[in-house]
Amino acid sequence: MIIGAHSIIYSKKPGADRAFLRDVLGFPHVDVGEGWLIFGLPPAEVAVHPSDGNDIHEFYLMCADVEAFVAAMDERNIACSPVQSMGWGLLTKVTLPGGGTLGVYQPRHARPRAMSGRRKKARRAPTGKSAKARGNTRRRGR
Fold it and tell me: How many H-runs (helices) and E-runs (strands) does the chain carry?
């Protein structure tokens, strides 16, 4: 049923932030017209946290080595917050060219296996009738 997730980063300077995702992070992308880029992401996961309100969502990127990530950003003069140990992971926030920040962390929590992007076809329960008797005369292999 679900084939993926689409995340949105709102920005005062979307062109600059798109360039960051494309050129700095190297995310694969497609241009759907007029420079509007949609980026492919690595496998993702979602968690549900308790809250006093609904419609509050956060977006983080995960990396294997947050210190190496911060060093790579530093080489490009891109600011990151100091790394914090959060128990569930090591967290930094990278400052995007548009002025916003994006959380990047090295997870310490257990990780689920990624969902397959393939949809499984629903199987019908056998009825005891042949395909011809059910009116299905379409031949396979066409």
Answer: 2, 6
CB 37 within 8 A of CB 18: yes
What's the pLDDT band for 113 if we cut at 50, 70, 90?
confident
Q: What is the pTM of this model?
A: 0.76
In sequence order, the 6+-apart residues with CB closer than 8 A to the CB of 100 are: 9, 10, 11, 12, 17
The neighbouring-strand residues paired with 94 are 80, 102
Q: What is the CATH topology of the domain spanning 14-107?
A: 2,3-Dihydroxybiphenyl 1,2-Dioxygenase; domain 1 (3.10.180)
Structural domain spans, the chain: 14-107
Q: What is residue 70's predicted lDDT score, i.e. its pLDDT?
A: 98
The full DSSP string for 41-106 is: -----------SSSS----EEE-S-HHHHHHHHHHTT--BPPPEE-SSEEEEEEEPTTS-EEEEEE
